[in-house]
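Appendix B, example 12.
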Amino acid sequence: MPAGLEYLVFDSKMTTCQNLSELNKRGTMFVTIRRRSNSLLERIGKIDKWKNTKIKRANGNTGTSSFLRRAHS
C-alpha cells in the first residue's frame, strides 16, 4: 500500500468477493459503496444512531461522512 494511504474507497461493483478477500488477507483496509435501492433508502432513513467522521480526500481536503457500525450476518 502506498505510504500515507490508510484505506481504499470504491464502488463494490468494481471488483469480486475473491478480490475483496485478497485485500483482507493483505491487511488492506477498504470501504465499498453500493447502489442505494428504494428499500435500502427506507431502511437507512429509520436509523437514528449514525456517527460522523472526517474523511481526507485525494486532493487533501476533508469531507464529513456518516456511518453506522453493524455486524454482518
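The chain has a mean pLDDT of 78. The chain is about 25% helix and 25% strand.
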